[in-house]
Each structure stands twice: as C-alpha cells, then as structure tokens.
Amino acid sequence: MEASRKFSTWEQEIIKHLSLARSSENGRIEDLLCSFYFKEQDGRALIIQSKSRYAVFFLSLDDFNDAQKKNEELDKFFEMLSLIRWLKERGYIALFRSSAGNDKVMYFLQDGFQNPNPSTGAILLNLKGDNTSAPDTIHDKNQKVIYKGMVFNTDTYEMIVATTTGNMYVAEKLSELVSQTDEQPQRAEIQTRVDKPVEKDKPSMPIGAEKIKTDLPKMPLARQTEQPQPPVKKKNHSLFQIIAYVIFFLNIGMFVLFTSRINTLQQHMNTLSENNDTLKKIIEERTSLNKVPRNSPDTAIKKDSTAYYYGIDISHWNGNIITDISHVDSISFAICKATEGATGIDPDYNNNCKLIRQKGLIRGKYHFYLINDDPVKQAEHFYEVAGNLDSLDMPLIVDIEQLSLSKRANKNKTVIQKELLLFLHKLQQMTARAPIIYTDFDFANEYLDDPAFSKYGLWLAEYSDSTTPQIPVAWKKSGCKIWQKSKRLDINSFTVDYDVYHGIKKDLCCN
Prior knowledge:
Elements lengths: L8 H11 L9 H8 L7 E6 L4 E7 H5 L1 H23 L3 E4 L9 E4 L13 E2 L6 E4 L2 E3 L5 E8 L1 H11 L2 E4 L3 H22 L13 H7 L5 H5 L13 H36 L1 H15 L15 E9 L16 E10 L3 E2 L3 H10 L3 E7 L6 H12 L10 E3 L13 H19 L4 E5 H7 L9 E5 L20 E10 L2 E11 L7
Parallel strand pairs: 10-11, 11-13, 13-14, 14-15, 15-16, 16-17
Antiparallel strand pairs: 1-2, 1-4, 2-8, 3-9, 5-6, 6-7, 7-8, 10-18, 11-12, 17-18
C-alpha cells in the first residue's frame, strides 16, 4: 500500500518538486529535472543518445575521481529514477513521448546547456564553448576534461529514457503524497516525545558530562570510605647504576640472539644441502602451476567452500566488454543474452559465449520473455539456440519484467502465470535442468506470486546497499540464487549489471 511507504529525505524533495509542476500540465520532465537536479553548479548532467540507445550520466571531474562521492551520486541518481518509475506505475504522474519515428535523436539535460545541436563531430553544448566528442567526456573550450561520464545501455537505458524524458502530467492525488511526506518527520517527533520519559528537576549538565559520569568504574563501597594512604617512598638509584644495568642486559641479549641466528642458519644450510633434489622438484611444480590461468575451465569449479562470487550480465549493447575483464575485476561468472520472444536472437550471442568460455568463467544464457508470443514456441526457440549446455554452464534463464508486458496484449495475471509455467516446464523437459527466473521485486510480487514458481531458482534484481535483498513473496522460504545488486560495475568506463552469488561455486552450474 502506498500509504505505508516511507520516503527518504531525497524522495520527499523530489515529490515536492513534482507537485509544483501541476500548474504546467504540458511541461516536459527534462525541464523540471534541470531546474533542481541536473544543475551546472552541482556538477551533474545527462546525455541520452536515442539512435545508438545509450545514456551517459556525467559528474564533474573532481566528483567522478572521488570514489565515495561518485557512489553517493549514483545512489542518488538511481533513487530518483526508481521513485519516478514507482510514481508512474501507480498513476501519480504520467509521461508521454512521441512515436519512435519522431523522437529526438539526443537529449541534453543540464541547466547550463544551451540548445545543443547533434552533429557527427564535436557537439557544442553552450556559448562558453563546452563540448563533447566522445560518449563519456565533456571538455571546455580549451579541450580540458571537465566532466566524466558513466555509460548505461540495455535495460538501464530503457529505464533512464522512460523516467527522464517526455511530456509530463501530474495527477491531483500526488498532493496526498506531499501531505504524507510532510507528516513523516512530525510523526517521528511526536513518537519521540511520547516514548521519552519526562525528567523533573534534573540539573543541567554540559554536553558529554553525563557520558563521562556513566563511564566511570564503580568502586566497592568499602573502598569509597577509606582515607587516602600516604605514598610509599621509593628507593632512588643513581643515573650511573641505571645506565650500567641497561648496557649489561643489552650485551647479554645481543649475544643470545647472535648465537641463536648462527645455529638456525646452520640448520637451514644443512637441510637445503641434504634435500636439494626435493627442492628442485617443488620449484618445478610451482612453476607449472603458475602456467594455469587464474580462472581456467579446469580450475573454475574445483573450489568447494561457501563464499561470495561476483558476475555480470551482458547483451549486444555491451559490445566486447568480456575482453576487458581481467583477474582484478574478481569476476567468476558471466550471463549473456541469447534470445528474445519466439524468433529474436542477440547479434553478439555466439561471440559472447565464446569469449566467456575463453575467460574461463562460468557461463549463463538468458531469454527475454514476451507475453505476446506463444510460450511453447519461445521455449523451443531458446533451446534451439542455447540448449547446448556443459558442466560449466548454468541452467537456462528466463528474463521476465515490466518490459515483457505489452499494452496490446489483453492478458490478465492468471493467464500470464499459466503461460510462463508452461514455458518453464517445456524448457525443463528439454534440458533436464530446472530453469532460473530473472525478475525484480515489484514485478514478482505483482505477477509471480504463485507458489509454483518457488521451485525455480530466482535471479533477483533488487538494488540496495543492504547486505541482503528483499525477497518476493513466492520465494520467501527458498530465497534467491543470484542477486543483481547493482547496475553499475565499471569496466573501462562502461557500466554493466553487477551480480552476487553466495554459496558453493560448483552449485551455480546445477540445481
């Protein structure tokens, strides 16, 4: 229920800005966002490239290079996008964009930009001479980098476009949320006053004095009444005697240490001499082990301990990003898009599959489910393209989310659930392995609340800084197999989804 939702301070601020836009029902959301968020003085900007289907979130160079500040800004950005999407889904606001054929080629969001014109070369952003000629950088007129950006594509691009562009209509009922956000701090203050006992006639104390008093150790009662004893008179030694003692004991210590080191060194020399052949054998074994790649297919599944393993998921929008992964990225698995609907195939599927295997990573393959298409035909198409599994492959994965729905399809939740279960059953029949379902928390609770889905592993998209994700109702007992914790793992300035698996590594490849 909306009434029970608690809004953060930042979300409250966004809601109030949106409520002020009611007077201009035909305004554009880009203009509103530029008025309070994408401001030049705050060092933020957003450029959306509709033709190439990617968006770039820019920060000033100082903020981009400050890891903590960068993470804080990204959290704030995605919190804003998530709230706008939440408000759209519940009818508090509506965003309308033109048909794809008449859509803008590029969107430029910052109050400091002055009607930039897209071009094949450098794009002039304002009269000061700020310009951009590469996806992830903005330069000043002297070609000095002043902004660095993070590139988002695939599903993240779709979310950014859907929440930051278009004509905006604000419903009257948004005022209810404004009242709710105004009441939140008042309720907390009232609760504090109710819960806190009234202390009468308590003398005031300096800040911190009460803590100091509390921290003092309590003395036994008998000790508190004792009179202080006169100090015991200590025997004085002359400075010369003290120096003599120190020198004497230092000489003894150095002699003992020197003798011990000589004996130890002699023992090591004898041992090395007697075991020279054994030593050579050990060196040869270690040299041969160093020739095995860190994540080679032969060693990737041998670790049996429970631990955290990290992965990414990609499609053709990410290009050859797999080639940029190195051991420093700590990636253990990669999941690539294979198919979509009843006929679609990701253009880079075969190449991504090959590169993932060359990197020695555990490999996953996913299908983007469309409710308009026949579920059995989708399962057969997915299996035909990606059904060749080996011991380093995860079970096949189906991605179903808000974008899987269609306004043209007249299917209720019951029909959607029935057809998806038919798809999963067919896929399990063909592969002899239970598929995995990828979805997000809100979609799962709305469309996938049937307990029958719990027998399939869950790959959950739930972005937060908590140590555990919110689990949808159908998977409350079993939990999620993989957690898509963030949409922002940076690899060479390109941002991909960041996934976490906690368990035994080899269990990623089986159910």
